[in-house]
Design brief:
Layout: H1 4-9, E1 12-18, H2 22-34, E2 40-44, E3 59-60, H3 65-71, H4 77-98, H5 100-103, E4 110-114, H6 120-123, H7 125-136, E5 141-143, E6 158-162, E7 166-167, H8 170-183, E8 187-190, E9 192-198, E10 203-208, E11 214-224, E12 240-249, E13 261-264, E14 269-274, E15 277-282, H9 300-314, E16 322-332, E17 339-342, E18 347-351, H10 357-374
Helix pairs in contact: 2-8, 2-10, 4-10
Length: 375
């Protein structure tokens, strides 16, 4: 039972955004910038964004050498270049809009460890640099001259350095989006699970967490920004979830002999140093089918594989105790480029960020807001 005032003020909006992660808040903010008098609501089923925004590893990256080479099997050179450019420009945009200090951004570069089976990538490094030069104007990838000083095991034959990547704090980034949205008068309701979107009417049906009552919100326009979870609201989509595991060690007693954001195994495994700890994640390629899940569970085989890599390759001979572990859910599809399109007369989506929400979430939200403004 609602009062007259509640019904009058809280259920009808110019725009309703479903999902309060990087893409959802970016959509709301950019729409409000373009339409300053609009009334905008963001709905989120969790206390924090449910998918991956604040569960990721904090890599400000756009693709390792082997990842880019792997993309050539599924995409044209022009498509690969456009994808890298979108990601890089996305990182530049968030740094410009929020500032490095706010994001806790560190330009420590990206690195990739190559073992014996991936050494052929070195032969193609020059060609990839040539392809990317029109974007970066300089060489993106170079070889680290003395990789043995980084302390990795002798399984690592070559370390490739990316001079245009860095790392940031995903929680600080979300906090900056919260602050900006609040200053603009955008409403954010958490603990509200959307169960249905009537895409042509702009009607959003939602449940308050823990209660069986359905509430009806009405939007002149609706944006679905729930990435992998969008399939529940848009079942005909070709989205596939991809679960990612992240492990965090206790503070290490010995100094870590490297800094930066690191990848190995074609970008599927990633690690970095965080507050004197080792943060290590990924490896969903070791069990693709089980990781196509919307359940926030731990795959024990992947956990064991990551711990083995930490002890044998990344910090060999060092004592590592693990303190925390968590999973995030990403969205993938036939192509790596994001999907931004109308799916009804009053509804549009921005999904399939391919694990690159930090890099492209802001730009994707901006593009969706422009699309919504024209609908």
């Amino acid at each position: 039972m609602f009062s007259y005032w509640e019904q009058k003020n809280f259920f009808s909006y110019d725009l309703i955004v479903i999902g309060s992660g990087f893409t959802g808040l970016s959509t709301a903010i950019n729409f409000k910038r373009k339409n300053p008098k609009s009334n905008v609501l963001v709905l989120e089923k969790g206390i924090f964004p449910t998918g991956a925004s604040t569960k990721n590893a904090g890599f400000a990256c756009f693709g390792s050498l082997t990842e880019i080479l792997d993309d050539f099997w599924k995409m044209t050179p022009d498509e690969v270049t456009a994808l890298v450019e979108r990601r890089y420009k996305g990182l530049q945009q968030i740094r410009k809009n929020f500032g490095d200090a706010t994001l806790r951004y560190q330009h420590t570069h990206g690195f990739e460890l190559l073992e014996e089976e991936n050494l052929s990538a070195v032969d193609q490094l020059g060609e990839v640099n040539k392809m990317l030069k029109k974007i970066f104007k300089k060489e993106v990838f170079t070889l680290v001259k003395k990789p043995e000083k980084m302390g990795f095991s002798d399984r690592v034959k070559v370390v490739v350095e990316n001079h245009f990547e860095g790392e940031l704090d995903p929680g600080a980034y979300l906090g900056a989006l919260w602050n900006m949205a609040s200053e603009m008068g955008i409403k954010i309701l958490t603990g509200v699970a959307v169960v249905e979107v009537q895409k042509d009417e702009g009607i959003v049906l939602a449940e308050n967490s823990g209660k069986n009552k359905v509430y009806e919100f009405k939007g002149k326009k609706v944006a679905i920004c729930t990435n992998a979870f969008s399939k529940k609201l848009w079942p005909e989509s070709a989205l596939e979830p991809g679960r990612g595991l992240v492990l965090l060690s206790k503070p290490l007693t010995e100094k870590i002999p490297w800094k930066g954001s690191f990848h190995l195994d074609k970008g599927y495994v990633y690690f970095r140093k965080v507050d004197g700890r080792l943060l290590l994640g990924g490896a969903r390629n070791k069990d693709f089918e089980k990781e196509k899940s919307l359940d926030f569970e731990i795959n024990p085989e992947i956990r064991a594989h990551l711990k083995s890599l930490a002890a044998e390759v990344i910090l060999p001979g060092k004592s590592i105790e693990w303190e925390m572990e968590w999973t995030g859910i990403m969205a993938f599809g036939p192509k790596k480029s994001p999907l931004i399109q109308p799916i009804g007369e009053k509804t549009a989506v921005a999904v399939r960020l391919g694990g690159m929400g930090v890099a492209i979430g802001w730009q994707v939200g901006k593009e969706l807001s422009q699309l919504l403004s024209k609908m």
